[in-house]
Each structure stands twice: as C-alpha cells, then as structure tokens.
Amino acid sequence: MARSGSRAGLLGRDNECRALEDLLTGVRAGRSGVLVLRGEAGIGKTALLRYLLDRAGCRTVRVAGVQSEMELSYAGLHQLCAPLLVGLDHLPEPQHDALGTAFGLRAGHAPDRFLVGLATLSLLADAGGNEPLVCLVDDAQWLDRASALTLEFVARRLLAESVVLVFALREPIADEVLGSLPALTVTGLTERDSRTLLDSVVTGPLDQRVRDRIVAESRGNPLALLELPRGLPAAELAGGFGRPDASPLSSQIEQGFLRRVQSLPAETRRLLFTAAAEPVGDVTLLRRAAERLGIDADAAASHADAAELITLGTRVRFRHPLVRSAAYRAAGPSDRREVHKALADATDAQLDPDRRAWHLAGAASGPDETVAAELERSAGRAQARGGIAAAAAFLQRAATLTQDPARRARRAVDAAQAKLQAGAFEPAAALLATAEAGPLDERGRARIDVLHAQIAFAQNRGSEAPALLLAAARRFGRLDVALARETYLDAIAAAVFAGRLARGPGLREVGEAARGAPPSRLPRLPDMLLDALAVRLTDGYSAAAPMMKRVLKGFCDEEIPAQEARRWLWLASVLAADLWDDERWHVVATRHVAITREAGALSELPDALDSRAAMHLFAGELSAAASLVEEVKTVCAATGSNPVRVGPLGVPVWRGRDREARTLIDAILSEAVPRGQGAAVTVAHWYHAVLCNGRGRYAEALAAAQEAAAHQREFSTPRRALIELIEAAARSGSPDLASDALQQLSETTQASGTDWALGVEARSRALLSEGDCAERLYREAIERLARTRVRVELARAQLLYGEWLRRENRRVDARAQLGVAHEMFSQMGAEAFAERARSELQATGAKVRRHTVATPAALTPQEAQIARLAGEGLTNPEIGARLFLSPHTVEWHLRKVFSKLGISSRKEIHTTQLEGEATSA
Predict the structure, then answer these.
(1) pLDDT-above-90 percentage for the chain
(2) Separation CA 756–CA 753 (nearest Å)
(3) Distance (Å, rounded) from C-alpha 433 to C-alpha 452?
(4) How far is Cα 354 from Cα 374, in angstroms, rounded to an integer?
(5) Contact 154, 883 (CB under 8 A)
(6) pTM for the predicted model, two decimal places
(7) How far is the CA of 101 from the CAs of 361, 515, 525, 563, 881, in angstroms?
(8) How far apart are CA 910 and CA 431, in angstroms?
(9) Which of 300, 468, 653, 889 could bridge across to 453 with cysteines, CB 3.0–4.6 Å?
(10) Region 525-535: what's the mean pLDDT?
(11) What is the DSSP string of 288-307?
C-alpha cells in the first residue's frame, strides 16, 4: 500500500493521516484526543495505527482485541495497562484496589466497574503527566465487554490530559461498540489508487477484464486488492475466467487466507491451528504446546508461505486477524480438541488456572464433570475480581459440559444470574429456559422466579416484576424465612415504582401477600420494615404510622451493616417522605448517599441522590439540588443507564421555568406510561400542579393535582398533590373539591403529627376558613413550618397569609408577610412564586423592584458543579472521583472558573457566588 511521495507512504490516505497528525499535535500541546477508525475488514485501519505508532515520538501502549478472549473480563484492558502498572500505587486506595482486583493482582470483592474506569482514567492521566501517551487499540470489536465499556468511559472523560486514545473497529458489528466517541470512517481507495496497488503485487500477466473485476469486487479494499490475486491461479489471472463467488468481501478475504493455510504442510498447519487457539500471543506457551504435539515450531514457522501469515518474535503475531480466524476455521473438530488439550497441558495450573480450564473445555468431546467443576471454580475467581461476564461464560460452558441434569440446571441458573449482572438480559433468559427444563428443587425454582423478576425489573422498571417476586417469595417461604422476607421487600419496592400502572398485583395485593410472610424468629430492622410497609398497604396510613415511625427511628439511630443499609435505606427514605418527617428524611438520605458513594455502588447511587435532591428542593436549596441532579446525569452517563428519572424535573418547576418544565413533564409521561412506571407518572402530574399554582393558573393546576392525587395508596406524592388540589380548588371556585381533599389530607397529617404535616394541614385549612379562624390557622402554619427544614413550605404559607391579609384590606400587615415571602423565594431562586409575591406586594401599594438571580452566567453546569465542590473544600482528586474526571481535567475546569469569576484561588470561591443570591434590578 506504499507509494513514493504519498503522505506517510500510505496510498490514498491523506485525509486520514492528517486527522491522526492533528491528534499528535494536540497531545504535544497538552490536549487529549480520541478517535475511532471505523471500516470493514482489510480497509487499512491497522496500517493507519502503524502510521500513528511510527510518528508518535513519545510513549505508546497498544493492544489488539482477540475474538476468543471476548468472554474474559478485563483481558484487553490488562494488556493495554500492563506497561503502566508501575503507577498503580499512586492511585487513591479505592481505585488502586478496584483495578488491582480486576487484574487479579490482589484478592477482594468484585470491584465496581466504574471505579475500575476511574482508576484507568487516573492511570493513563498520570502516565501522560511527564510525556504524551498514545494508546492504540486494534480490533476493538473483539475486546471483552468489560474492557470496551471501561475504555469508552475513559475516552469520554479525556480532556486536559496529554493522552491520545485511538481505536480501530471493524464494521459491520452486531453491537454498537464505542458508539459515543468521535469516529472517522475509513472508506475504499479510489479506482485509480486501487489499480496502482493491484499492479504492485501482480507479477505475471493480468487480463484487463480480470483486473476490472478484481478492482470492482474489492471496492477499494486494500487487503482485498493484495490478497484476492494470490488466491487465483495464473491461468485465471491471464485468461479472464470469471468466478461465481458472491460472498461478502470479508468472507472472500478470509477464504483466500483459508486456501493459503490449507495449502501449507501438515506440521505448519497444526502450528497455525495451535497459535490461533492461543489468544494471548505467548510465544513460550506456543512452543511448549507445539512440543507436546511433536511439532518443531521454528521449522514449521520457517516455511516460506507461512512466514507471510505468522511471525514468532517476542510475541506471536498473525499478519491480519482474518488469518487467525481462517486458521482456526481450517482445523477440524478433532484437530481443535487436540490443540486445546496441548495448550491446557502447557499452561501453568498455578499461574493461569482460568485459561487452562478454558482450554480444557475446548478439548472436551462431551460432558466432563471434572472440567465442568474446574470451570465453576474459574467462575468464582472471575467474579471475585469483578469479571462478571467472564464468570457467566465459565458457568455457561460448565453447564454445557455437565452430565447430571440437576447439576446442569443449577449451573444454568448460576450462569443466568451472572449474565443478568453483566447486563446480558436475553442470554440470561435463555439460560433460565434451559434450567427450567431440568429437575430443580424448590429453592432452584424460587431462584428462577427471582431472576425472571429481576430481568423484567431491569428492562422495564416496576411492571411485571412484583408478580414474579411474589411467586419467588412464596417458594422461599417454605425453605428460607429470611430470604423469603427479603424477597417480599423487593416485591414491595418494585410495586412502589409500578404504582398505578402495575401489571398484575398492585400495591394492595403485594401488601396482602407480604402480610402472609412467615414470621422471623429474631426480627431485624428489615423485618420491622416489611411488617410496617405491609400494614401501610393493607390497613392504611393511620394504622401503620406508629410502626413506620419506630422503623424509621431504628434506621436513624441504630448501627446497620453497610451492605444491608445500601439495600434498604432507599425504602427508609420512602417511609420518611411518607411520614412528613423532614429531619429523618435528611438523615437517611444523606447516609444513603454517603454509603453508596463509599462503596462505589454506582448503579444504586442515582436513586440515593434523587432522594437527597428532593429533600434539598423542599428546603429551598435549589442550587444544591441542581448540583445533585447534575451528578445523577454524570453517573447515568457513566453507567450507560437511561431510566425515566423525575429528579431533573424538580429544579425547573420550583424555579418556575415553564417551557423547560413542560418539556420534561411531557417526556416523562410519554416514557413512563409504556414502561409501567406509575410512580413517575404521579410525580410528573404533581410537579405540573406545583408549576401552575406558582404561576396562578389554578384551573390547570386543579386538573393536574386531581390526576396526581387519584391513587392515594401510593407513597407521599399523592398527599402532596392534595395540598396543591386544595389551593387550586379554593382559588378557582371549587370549595367542595377542596373540602373533600382536606379531609383526605387530614387523615394522614394527624397520624403523622410532625410540624411539617400539621403545618401544611393548617395552611390548607386556612384557605377554606374565614375571619379569626383563618388567621389563627395561618399563624399556626407559619409557626410550625418555621421549626422544619422545609423552607419552601414556610414561604408559601407566608405568601398565602399575605394574600389573605390583602383581601381583608390589611395592607400594612400584608406587606410584612408578602415581603418576607418575596425575599425568601428570591433567595431560593423560585422565580414564579417570587413574581406572584411581587405582584401581590404591588397590589398593596408598595413599590418593589423585580429581583433577578445573580448567577455566574458564564459558567457551564459542569464548571458550576466543580466550583461548588471546590468551595466545599474537596481536593481535585476528590472532585474527580465524585464526577468521574481526572484531576488534570478538574484543574483545567477550575482555571476557567477562576478566570470567569475574576478570582485567583479556590479559597475565593464562596457558596453564595454559586447559590444564586438575589440582587435588585
């Protein structure tokens, strides 16, 4: 493909080479760069990587994906990072431990894959600190899933590090790999360049029609142009006899390699078979295996034709990945079993037991319990170092090799559970079908029910899951009381998400089933939680309130194991919100966030953050809530999850941003309804009512509040909707509706007995009262709410009291209340409610200027988030760990913050600068 005078010696690749040179220019100037070279097999992606390698002039690391290693988690990442592991000890301890465990360098629990991603980011960033670092990943389509996700995670966060990351990715591919990264599609050569390249490799006569056909069939693919002529006899080249082969181009190329492999001497072919089955490229291992097969590796590899296909140097290298696949395909079943057996015998059982087990599985001709048991042990080791996908592969292969039907079914269930944890839902369901065909005991059937439910919940939160979990809980009830009760709790949690849209048993039915759970002999907090929730869903709020209060107190006051706390604190937050207990809600939500962050449990962190953000919203701390919402977005982007989330809606609603809020409401309703997420639908309608009440659109607020309040068995939100319904109905001339809603509200607020509950009841009752009774109730509401964290409720009480005083023609008194409400709303950034208070103040004859929120407008959301964390005293590494950025990128953002705010150090960042303090305009 070389041509004298062409750019970099690559024929027809000027644009691609220029893009790679731009990456090198940027990294030398301290900027990171990422690029995915996409194209079909043989199009020249590897040649472009070699070009970049030759011109880097700095430190380089590289790896190539291997198809047979796709099930071995972190295999590709380990090869890429191996030269950099000297920097492992410089990483923060959680990152050090996560990466070390993933690579099998230390024992430990399975690491969170996002901590592994952050550790990899830090490792690459530190390596690029002294000199630029260029990372090359060839055949990225064959990376194991864990490595591919980790490297995509890292690539999305490279910004101010001197690191370049370039992937070569074959298309078409079944899964969208690295789809979020900048890409350059490498296309075929022009016809002129194709003819030039073809002529450079054909030494004999070439019929013009054959030339035209080869150029047309190759579609400019360089490897095809180089290899297709080699597969044609001289007579065909010279005489122009056409080939009827119409297979895809990559298949044609591979067929050409296949023919070349098949034409080799028997001993050379067997060497290539063995090398193709050994994915690491370990030349020493290959020589040991060849010796067991009676092959002289050097003599076999020295054959002239073989030298063009494989090289034995410090590593085993095939000329092209298609040579490897062609060689493996050329081997018959007995040949494959023979080479895998030789490789297993040559692999050190102490140093690499898992790869040895994999080769033993490849050598098995039928069921083999010894090998299956070894694969099962390998799965345990893989799971311990965070290789869930590898564990699933080992277990699936173990199930295939198991003779005993009952044992095979159990292993299939284990494999399904690992597949589910790895996010492979369809393979998990297929394995469950295999398991269901076998003889399972009651525990095994219950596990299958749980896994079916978890698959349904993961794919469509809260719709079919409750019924499946109830079935599993009933089975467990005869086998394991503790496990049964925990499964009933899981069913309740799933039913909470499903709410009004449950397909199958709803909240009441789940509660009734949970009340039938076998009693625990030594009740723990989760047992008390289950009993309280079951009573709440069956006998109602008032009957359950005392039990709920005791459970919530226990979660706040007692020491709870971290793993147990992570699992159940979300439900404790649900209880706290339902009980109008702002203090304990604050305690459990804050603890939940801290525990999940410390554990690196990022799949659980968004729900914890959402709960804490909701508490900040009620406290009127809109900027703090917005910061947590941004963190949720960061975590969800890191995990690749995209569930319906209502957290982002709260900030624009309380700020009165009508267009933004309505867009989010419409999006939530359109997504949540088909997914069966009834709780999200209820929250969206409630927020719609709040938005409209803030802007004085009471008829619209009433309709939205009625929708939100329609299902009172749901937790917390329907009661908050009653508050909005009462205000909207009272303001729009529907006192009967308001009175009915007040009666419903009072049943729960009286049972709760907190200042928050009794304060909003008094405020709502005052709206339907007159004279001294109304004034007394407004004053009670203000007095009670002043003792809580919920400042937004206090400000609303003062606004309503001021509006009532103005209508009573007590203008001076009204100005005092409306002035306080206006100031509070303005400081919060609750613009719509602040404007409502300002209009009322003007109606009293007061002169008041509209308040605007002074925010550092030039700061992006991420810059504001970083500035806020820096102002709280977090270091750059701590901020990076929180937001999944490298410390270098955090520093880069902070320099921009300093410039925009006109400050010179983080000590000058004040919270008030970022909270949006009010100024007169």
Answers:
(1) 46
(2) 8
(3) 10
(4) 8
(5) no
(6) 0.69
(7) 25, 42, 33, 19, 18
(8) 56
(9) 468
(10) 96
(11) HHHHHTT--HHHHHTSHHHH
